[in-house]
Fold these 2 entries.
Entry 1:
Amino acid sequence: MNRIALGLTLAAAPIVIAAQAPALTPAVTPYVTVAEPVVALTNVRVIDGTGAPAVEGRTIVIQNGRIASVSPASSAKVPAGARVIDLAGHTVIPGLVGMHNHTFYTTRGRSVQLQFSAPRLYLGSGVTTIRTTGGTSPYHEINMKRAIDRGEIPGPRMHLTGPYLTGPGGAATMAQVGTAEEAQRIVNYWADEGVTWFKAYTDISREALGAAIKAAHARGLKFTGHLCSVSFREAVALGIDNLEHGLFTNSDYVPNRTPDRCPDMRASLLKVDLEGPEVKQTISDMVTHKVALSSTLAVYELSFPDRPPLEDRVLDALAPEAREEYLTTRKQTSARAAQSTMPELFRRAQTFERLFVRAGGLLGAGVDPTGMGGALPGYGDQRNYELLLEADFTPTEVIQIMTLNGARILGVDKDLGSIAPGKIADLVVIRGNPVATPGDIRNVTIVFKDGIGYDSPRLLASVKGVVGIR
Ligand SMILES: [Zn+2]
């Protein structure tokens, strides 16, 4: 790849994006397979991310990092000098927008910042935009974003979230916030450092959460939460923008709840009538106040006995110790299958997400590569595709949830999230047809970010055996 020639071409283009497109450094160029400024993808099936049905036999022209046109072969105008890539038998979808996409990873007992492997796994799996949604090492993420934006390492666009805000006595990696003043101080500090989202965690008080949300909004920034001590409806009333994990973290239905305390909510979630007035109230509060919901089914599925189907690529990507830890916990989960309430709770969570969308709610999705350690960055996002199909969304609805809806939540849908002329060329090329064969979502061949095509198999091969270490 001739980096200087590419830079000159972009500099000459009369399009604003040229200023943002990274110059490619020698660390990145081995993963780049398409770097020409004008590219035509021909004979391809397109799922555009808006929920519209798939269309066949399209030509997508990419020019200087943007989508110039999407047209049937009969009317396609391929510019002279374009690199033409015949994609017969392939499907193109927008780059995935991951709404709960940490760059750290956990098993039971292990928590590791994946500075090397997370950005490669995300990009290689077709996730071109991530929100980090709670950092355990925020400066690792700030510097990762800078390195990606400068073209020094391959990776997705990053929307940085600050450290988690929880209550006194909460998790050791988090800011333990006791008062409104502390909440404001912490939010303002990280806002100065460049984060654009904040996330509250299970033990925060209503007072601290309310103050933190206010401070974030005063800076034009947004707030999400993995809640427990504060219920969904309470958080909506406090002005939160997004709620993580869907039904699993909703304490609205716990009878005689002590305010500001995190209750055991499982029994209430197994009991509540999903078609009843309490659930309707939660959903209507969220829809009325435009509070988005993030689906993270792939991480919760790990607690579902004997699921997900084991994938060789997951086991191969894991470092031996992390693989052992995941498989051990998986075995323990299977051994308790007879007593497990997870199958029922999981189905309920899927139903809640469907009811939320049918009521007009904005649902995004992300992997959350934590918990027992079997949902890897990118691979778990692809698994979400199948789990949302299982929740009874149509294939094009699921693609919309995973692309345009995420872009809307992030406020970047003018430029990203769907395949349309004028938008940034973030595209995933898939061998096969994920509408007919859901598993094809894994057959990513090329991932375009800013119109530059990355070799997916090469990116994924580069992290073999290291996930869980680096
Ligand atoms: Zn999380």
Entry 2:
Amino acid sequence: MLPMTSTDPILVIGGTGKTGRRVAARLAARGVPVRIGSRTGTPPFDWEDPTTWAPALRGTRAAYISFFPDLAVPGAPAAIAELASTALAAGTRRLVLLSGRGEEEAERAEQELIASGADWTIVRCSWFSQNFSEDHFHDHVMAGELALPVGDVREPFIDADDIADAAVAALLEHGHEGELYELTGPRLLTFADAVAAIGRASGRDLTFVSVSMDDYAASMVEQQVPDEYVQLLTYLFTEVLDGRNAHLADGVRRALGREPRDFTEFARDAAAAGAWASDDAEVVR
Ligand SMILES: NC(=O)c1ccc[n+]([C@@H]2O[C@H](COP(=O)([O-])OP(=O)(O)OC[C@H]3O[C@@H](n4cnc5c(N)ncnc54)[C@H](OP(=O)(O)O)[C@@H]3O)[C@@H](O)[C@H]2O)c1
């Protein structure tokens, strides 16, 4: 096996997603060669086809690992164990895993990585602020109403820019090996608070409605949301959002030596970039 050098690329698995594309952009801005690990990468990387993993890892010096669809699903720990073993066999020792707070399967996946013998770092995150601007909830914000099966549970939403900064520090700098950084925003907000902040930043008239889990699941089935996704959201809303994560953590400060970005800054910047602009306006999320 050739020793890895600083000209070897870093594999960014999920490099077209919310966190991965930010990690890839930061690495590229520093002149670090990047290989995108996704079904559209070259070579392609597919979580459902382990034969694609070694070719994607070959010749890389480190990897950022964002699992799809979610580290909370059954099978995620086994996939992370196999990926870590494939990475070590390819000579890629530095592995940075994106994880979720308060999720049993995610914690088992973390343990698999820790036991693998890799030089690991884990960024264990709260709910992403960008779920409202780039993912699940964006369409609902655009429709003016977000109806979710949550009440007044509070969540310290984390900005994906902070996650990417921490992941890049772990990929490029010494001193982050063997560290588990719990990344949260600086403030606990209810989902109603978050929607109100987006309403103020975007100038949109937005309503948050708390619905029952049964009604929410029924509406997802009606919208033909795939069954696995309905199950995942049901798990996240009924088990993970039960208050267990309603506390702040100091991971951003530990990893980066600064405070995390507040939700209002996220909402202001996303609005300014056109995340919630009307459909006929140019959108730069
Ligand atoms: N959202 C949250 O609030 C939250 C909180 C904590 C932790 N997390 C964790 O974040 C992770 C998701 O990260 P993210 O939000 O940055 O990503 P994302 O925005 O959900 O993007 C998904 C990425 O996965 C790729 N992908 C989809 N299917 C794939 C497949 N079969 N094989 C390989 N790649 C595939 C996509 O690229 P292509 O389509 O090009 O393949 C894309 O790059 C999950 O593991 C979740 O547990 C999320």
